[in-house]
Amino acid sequence: MEKAIDKRFDIKQIGNDYAEKYGFKDPEEYFHKGAKGINHEVVEMMSRMKKEPEWMRAFRHKALDIFLSKPMPKWGNTELLNSIDFDDIYYYIKPTELQGNSWDEVPEYIKNTFDRLGIPEAEKKFLAGVSAQYESEVVYHSVKKELEDQGVVFMDMDSGVRERPEIVKKYFGTVIPPADNKFASLNSAVWSGGSFIYVPEGVDVKIPLQAYFRINAENMGQFERTLIIADKGSRVHYIEGCTAPVYSTNSLHSAVVELIALEGSYIRYTTIQNWAHNIYNLVTKRSVAHKNATVEWVDGNIGSKLTMKYPCIYLVGEGAKGEILSVAFAGNGQHQDAGAKVIHAAPNTSSRITSKSISKAGGRASYRGLVKVHPKAEKSKVSVECDALLIDEESRSDTYPTMEIDADNVRIEHEARVSKVAEEQLFYLTSRGLTEDEARLLIVNGFIEPFTKELPMEYAVELNRLIELEMEGSVG
Amino acid sequence: MLNENTLLKFNNIHVEVEGKEVVKGISLEVKSGEKHAIMGPNGSGKSSLANALAGHPAYGITAGEAYLNGVNLLDMDATERARSGLFLAFQYPLAIPGVTVANFLRSAVKARFGEDSIEMRDFRKILKGKFELLQVDPSFATRYVNDGFSGGEKKRLEILQMAMLKPSMAILDETDSGLDIDALKIVSHGINSTLTGDNSILMVTHYQRILNYVNPDYVHVMMDGNIIRSGGPELAIQLEEEGYDWVKSETMEKVEA
Prior knowledge:
The complex is a heterodimer. Chain A is of the alpha/beta class.
């Protein structure tokens, strides 16, 4: 705790920026880099290179047909969405021939990249397993032996398809079918990498598992696919982080994440999205919580040009619980269109959505949410809280909350607030010797405290540091 | 000409809020170790004076001069004034949700005395001592600054900050308001214990009662943006007994005479 406080307010050390810290790029020494553009040949080539079973090959082709016929969504930031040129994207880049199980097996330049991002160090200190994806493939993967001995499966999704077909086939694409939305169909056609996790009945994975996603090439499309299944009474916490170099042209990150929490299990999925400001981050995340299971999405969005992401929970079993806690930071030229979806489909289910957004220097943060309570989901509880903080006059915040309550005896709480950093608050803090920038940063850190306190300490420190970088040179 | 013992000195200070002049040419000199009180009815401009001296951007000083330890106060913003040893205990302290009292105090101590001025262990020890001084529960440290605090808790936190930041010149704006008698005693005891004989305080208050516990050397009466009378501690007692109308009528007589 002491360390966290120390670092959090180490404001004087400001000076690094994204470009230096995360935005560096490596030379491309790839095993395979296909041509730009998307068609059935690309899909066929990927499936062949991955030595996939027939069912997956067919799944991809079918998904591509859906993608090609599906129109672009007509909501959200349609201007930016329509500016995506799907022919100008690399869909599959395989950086190395083989995956490493120790960092020594990873090519030097890629290892250096992850070193700079602090992944091997974090792995040593506080993680039970790590997966590192570079472009389209997971280049490093390791999991503690104790977990393997307990039957915990943590591998990249491609290996999952090959090695655990009995589980993957049963669940893959069941929570988010390819036809769900245009970007889910695109992912289903060209997915590569991501994590596959299965936690057996009753196993409690006490320390977090982490995946880190790195885009390096320009005009890259990264389409990882993650599937997590927590069997009865098990528990798991999974964390993902991501960064990319700064380029003048745009790249696309379009993941699909499916979580299945079986009876009495618990899944927490934490994301700290820190993409460069040229990334379109269009992600579909959805989970199913069975009887007395709990799913928690802890979702932090700092980077990207446009993020559209609405983590979703289907509460399908009696007594299931869901929580979605999110923070979005929209700076200059950024649009964070984030939110949450909860579907109550069983009695005595409860959900809580807490959304916090910060807009600065003309940035735009939107909350888009849906809570639906089916007729049979009686005695359910719903709580939604949206809190927006505007740092200056030119920034923007919108909320699009939707509630469809079709059951009786449902308790609903809903709160939405938009606030500005008040002159009086700034004066109070400056009168104690803080500069205006330090005062604003303290106010912002306080504002997102309900989020940061849910993160493992190391991530809380990192998040505060990222916010500090984003707040640097904040307008007066 | 500044006396070497002069801590705060201001001359002919005028303050405007939203285009309206609320302080109309006030002068005062506070020497090292002195306790001053400015008393006045609501709307007399005394809180505006306090805020303007601390550097509140909405309280513009339109004319006059002010020095803290011989340095021109008006060249400094609120941050610099605080770092130079000026402190304002707020009448209405602001809530900073999500920021704990301990974090806030640590940030403020670092801002005032420098990044490496204090070790975490020492900081916690000192903080613990100040908690005892102001009779607050240790759980205070992890509560969010003034968020859901009672009036009394807010005022205790103000004085706790003063005790941690050790200002050479503290301005206390209506610190007694909203305090019951027990809390008033604790807060007054806290204020007195910060006094070293070198530092000074300027209390701004409507009522005389805090002055029973923090005894001023000088009392000034402020009305309609001016100091209309100055005297010793007896002036406060007289005011309490006879009310502000008494000084007002007496001043009017003088003007007419």
